[in-house]
Amino acid sequence: MPEHIKNQLLKEIQILEHELAHELPAEIKKAVSLGDLSENAEYHMAKQRQEFVNARLGQLKRRMAELSLVNLANIPHDRAGFGSTVVVFDTTKDEEIVYRLVTSEESDVSKGLISTTSPIGRGIVGKRVGDIATIVTPNGKRELEILKLTTIHDEAAAAAASENGAAASTEQ
Questions:
Q1: What pTM was estimated for this model as a whole?
Q2: Which domain CATH number covers 109?
Q3: How many CA atoms lie within 13 A of 49 on its CB side?
Q4: For burial by CB atoms within 10 Å, which of 1, 55, 157, 167 has the most?
Q5: Number of folded domains in the chain?
């Protein structure tokens, strides 16, 4: 799991746990002191917020568990998968597009960051150079031909080679 995503999720968990343990009990106690709970809007809002925070905490903790199970060794070396950068030719729009397959937390279509769980991401995952992914979108079918693929493993190898090259040039 990318470190910044882990930190982002942990920060939100920490904020919600603080709210659940400290702020909401104080709000509920204050609302109870106002009297009749059956028509006490402050009490009902605080209880609703408490339910929401509990549900959101559950979601975040499940997502952290899912992301911690991602094993980079299971990501293919020769096909598109999480972390891959893919250059595709969109036959519908007659243009080349660059996508990077990321987690749903990182996705930003305007920057070409596509979640592996989005329709385009699901269509591209598992494809090789030369394959055509048919994507069903609300606007109809799109065909994306895979022109170039750089996997997360290729990027790691390039980064390591770059570091080794930089270290070798400083030694001379």
A1: 0.61
A2: 3.10.50.30
A3: 17
A4: 1
A5: 2
